[in-house]
């Protein structure tokens, strides 16, 4: 397969395909497998903003991140509670993506949004420290494309209050994913 021409913006068809794959992942894994018990309500209320970005450099992604952090901070939570920035052309390598998370935290500080918003991460090659690449626990943070998830701190606090055993989510996710296994995941997400 030839490399994508990153000098051009994403076509409308490519952008729509990324959007659909992300929505499928949200509905099938995040909500369907209940990997995040807080996601269903905001998804049902249409409070999730998905931004598909065609940028092709980390520097350009910083500007997209900055703009989306500002947008989320200035938007009522009833309209947009959380934002996913999906960026299929930049930070394809997980180690580069992981390194970028420090930059993302710096943008939060620069924008004076630390303590108000936070950035979580999803990636097709996501790997928790100390795990093997094929460890099923890693799939709790595997998305079809590199994705920065912008969350409101107060929404997280409310969700944790409503779900008193929030610390058990990670362990439950590992159990769910191990039962599902690689073949089960593959059945949910056949190769594109």
UniProtKB/TrEMBL annotation:
<protein>
    <submittedName>
        <fullName>DUF1415 domain-containing protein</fullName>
    </submittedName>
</protein>
<dbReference type="Pfam" id="PF07209">
    <property type="entry name" value="DUF1415"/>
</dbReference>
<dbReference type="InterPro" id="IPR009858">
    <property type="entry name" value="DUF1415"/>
</dbReference>
